[in-house]
Amino acid sequence: MHRKLKESNPRVKLTHLNKTNIVDVWAHNFQAEIAEIADLIEEFNVISLDTEFPGTEYDQPESDDKVTDYEYLQLVRNVQKYKLIQLGISLANEAGEVPLAKNTWQFHFKFNAQYDQLMSSVKNMLEQAGIKFDDLASKGIDYSEFCEVVTGSGLILNDEIKYVVFHGEFDFGYLLHLFHHSGIPDTQDEFYKMMKLYFPSIYDLKYILKDNPKYKDAGLSRLATKVEVTRIGPEHQAGSDALLTLQCYYQMKFCFPDLQSDFEKNMNVIYGIGKGYIPNNRRKTFASTTQTPDPTLQVSQIDQAYYYAQNFYNDEQQYYQYNQQYMNYTYYNQYQMLDTDQQKRKSGY
């Protein structure tokens, strides 16, 4: 008796994709969607990832000694304190084709904005992007169930999968903290060992482009503009950001041959962690101002370079202002900033 061959899934070139159905995954359809994804990754083994989370706290290091260790400890402290809100994934094959019917999913976790820690600025940003926190609290996916089902799905712990991110420091920090039985490791060396197990092959576009003068200072949205990729779906939702990351990845691989060597030599390094730490990528000193700090934020060390990049970007010597308000703060002795890493990563850092 002859075994019936599995039919190939209809697909379309990612470069020809002008709309897609970003699938919202809640508790009620979680297991069914994971089962579909598990079938698809046999053919579509390139997965881009993006996360949304409650914000980021940073302390200014007292000295530059062991600053990479200090930065990593900031990551550990944040993922232990906060909970993941959304995970977006998008699938493609090596030829840059995506499944026609479904190719992008965003997983909504059981997050309660009344009890779980959440920065007000992040809450406002995500609500403007269309995230409904009441739905997260009532219909979101349980974290334990997510880990159990995904661990056996082939989405992780799979040598055949290639993962693509843009500034994946917090994306992988939160995911490792979920999947690893002891949480996120205490040291960067252990972190990379765990990454090799859970996510064996990684391309972090932010790190890959770190030495390219044209792209190194670009956030995700600005990079997409520079490589002529059009976003599908709302910014600051994990599904749209994951798809945009995938679009940028293939656009650069297929249309920019001078970047090919950068992809291979910078593989498996995450921007911001260990070897991926870029000195002075966050802290710069600007002249002081006289405006009053926003009372909704806690500030003790201003990261003024972040505010410059968050709200303005320079493209061909022109500045374009995003929809977020530009803010300046009085610079005193020991400021510290509780800022939104999602905004920072996608707007210039």
Write a brief caption for the model.
The protein contains 13 helices and 13 strands. The protein has helices at residues 30-40, 67-81, 120-129, 133-139, 143-151, 169-179, 188-198, 205-208, 220-226, 238-255, 260-265, 304-311, 341-347; strands at residues 11-13, 23-25, 46-52, 56-57, 86-92, 97-99, 104-108, 162-165, 202-204, 299-300, 312-315, 318-321, 336-339. The strands form four sheets. A six-stranded mixed beta sheet has the order 2-7-5-3-8-9. A three-stranded antiparallel beta sheet has the order 4-13-10. It has a two-stranded antiparallel sheet with strand order 1-6.
Tell me the β content: 5-15%
CATH class placement: Alpha Beta
User: How many structural domains can be distinguished in the coordinates?
Assistant: 1
Identify the overall geometry. globular
Helix segment count? 13
Written description of the protein model:
By secondary structure, the chain is of the alpha/beta class. The chain has a single domain (11-281), classed as Nucleotidyltransferase, domain 5 (2-Layer Sandwich), CATH 3.30.420.10. It contains 13 helices and 13 strands. The chain has a six-stranded mixed beta sheet with strand order 2-7-5-3-8-9. A three-stranded antiparallel beta sheet has the order 4-13-10. A two-stranded antiparallel ribbon has the order 1-6. A hairpin with a 2-residue loop joins strand 11 (312-315) and strand 12. Helix 9 runs parallel beside helix 10 (238-255) and helix 12 packs across helix 13 (341-347). The radius of gyration is 20 Å and the shape is globular. The N and C termini lie far apart (58 Å). It catalyses: Exonucleolytic cleavage of poly(A) to 5'-AMP. This is poly(A)-specific ribonuclease.
